[in-house]
Amino acid sequence: MLTTLDLDKRALIIDYCYERFGIMEHIFDNYNWYIGSKNRIYIGPEEIERLIPESIGLCIFRLDRTPKPTTNFIQLFGKEITKNIINLDRDQTLDFCSGSDLKITDSVEPGFVSIKYKNISLGCGHWNGETLKNQIPKSRFCKINFL
Amino acid sequence: MTKTQTVKERIVERYSRLSDDSRKFSNIINKPLKQSFRVNIIKGEKEDILRQMMLYDSSIKKVPWCENAFESDLTNLGSSIHHFSGQIYIQELTSMIPPLIVRDLIKKNKILDCCAAPGSKTTQIADMMENKGHIIANDARHGRIKSLRGNLDRLGITNTTVTLRDFKSFPNTKADLYFVDAPCSSEGTIRKKNAVTRKWKDYDYERFSRMQKGLLKKACEMAPKGSTIVYSTCTFAPEENENVINEIINEENVKLQNINLNGLKMKKGITSWKQNDYDKDVEKCRRIWPHHNNTDAFFLARMEKC
Ligand SMILES: C[S@@+](CC[C@H](N)C(=O)[O-])C[C@H]1O[C@@H](n2cnc3c(N)ncnc32)[C@H](O)[C@@H]1O
Question: Complex ipTM, two decimals?
Answer without folding.
Answer: 0.97
